[in-house]
Specification:
Layout: H1 2-17, H2 26-30, E1 34-41, E2 44-51, H3 52-58, H4 60-66, H5 71-75, E3 77-80, H6 85-97, H7 111-130, H8 134-150, H9 158-167, H10 173-189, H11 199-214, H12 216-227, H13 283-286
Parallel strand pairs: 1-3
Antiparallel strand pairs: 1-2
Helix pairs in contact: 3-4, 6-7, 7-8, 7-9, 9-10, 10-11, 10-12, 11-12
The structure holds zinc ion (2 copies).
Length: about 300
């Protein structure tokens, strides 16, 4: 008992010596200024009132529009008609609480609930890409990966892959992941070999060729995924090859399959501007110092 108590005391002493290890003050984190963000179009619209400081500290995109001379900064109002309000809800939960219960899924869900959940994860991932929040993108991709392997209803089928391409941009890791899954299916199908030609293999091949005809990006990425040689350094299996965080010995998301999982302990993996350390535009930030292009500590 005494050992535990003394280690507790030591922790307390240590945190008194090092004030930087204390969480930032509530008032400093949130500030007093709020901004209004309207998301969605006339069909389905939602307005969020958000603390400006907090929002800006998580994404350089928002800091750029609200700490500027743009109309959005002057009026403290922004509108994103193309964004999905329910995905934005997940983004807000992550910004305020650091959790993602909004994209959680009951283990006894229906088929349609499972598919709806996947669409929500993908849409949230799309927002993380759009607003340059690498940590959120990594987490969403991890959840997507595990979900698609855990539940039949969450399978990454061709419709889901097409949806990933709808919601993300050309350099998205979600696209890279989707293309690699598709490549695995193509390789397994191997229609050219008559001996293993089966009805389902032919149907899969036809559908893949159909989807590639409709979406040229999918065809290009599929070709790249099939012809790619494993790249070093960095792991070539599991979710980590699709993560944006700097390549470290142990992936902070390893074994993480829950939407409520805690964030990586290594704060230094992500920069204060929202980017992964290795992807920040600032050279100093890439080597572990705070991003001078963006003064707020994480
Ligand atoms: Zn990783
Ligand atoms: Zn940065």
């Amino acid at each position: 008992m005494s050992q535990k108590a003394s280690s507790k005391r030591n922790n307390k002493q240590a945190s008194q010596v090092k004030p930087s290890s204390l969480p930032p003050l509530f008032s400093e984190t949130f500030g007093t200024e709020t901004v209004q963000i309207t998301v969605g179009d006339d069909g389905f619209k939602r307005t969020f009132t958000v603390h400006k400081n907090l929002l800006a500290s998580k994404s350089r995109f928002f800091s750029a529009i609200f700490d500027s001379n743009f109309l959005e900064a002057v009026t403290s109002n922004a509108s994103f008609p193309d964004d999905d309000p329910s995905a934005f809800e997940a983004l807000m939960e992550w910004i305020y609480y650091d959790s993602l219960k909004t994209i959680g899924l009951n283990s006894n869900h229906t088929q349609e609930e499972g598919r709806e959940n996947m669409r929500k994860i993908i849409a949230t991932l799309g927002l993380a890409d759009k607003y340059c929040i690498d940590e959120l993108a990594d987490r969403c991709l991890t959840i997507l990966y595990h979900r698609s392997r855990e539940y039949v209803s969450c399978k990454l089928d061709l419709d889901m892959i097409a949806f990933i391409y709808e919601e993300t941009g050309p350099i998205s890791m979600a696209r890279k992941y989707a293309a690699s899954e598709l490549a695995a299916a193509v390789t397994a199908t191997s229609v050219l070999d008559l001996r293993v030609r089966s009805k389902s293999a032919i149907i899969t091949a036809l559908r893949i060729s159909e989807i590639c005809k409709q979406n040229r990006d999918i065809l290009d990425d599929l070709f790249k995924a099939i012809t790619a040689r494993p790249q070093s350094p960095g792991p070539t299996t599991g979710t980590c090859q699709f993560h944006l965080h700097p390549k470290v010995a142990v992936c902070p998301y390893r074994g993480m399959d829950e939407e409520v999982a805690v964030r990586p302990k290594e704060d230094s993996l992500y920069c204060g501007c929202g980017r992964s350390r290795s992807r920040c535009n600032d050279r100093q930030a890439r080597t572990g110092k705070r991003c001078p292009a963006f003064g707020r500590p994480r």
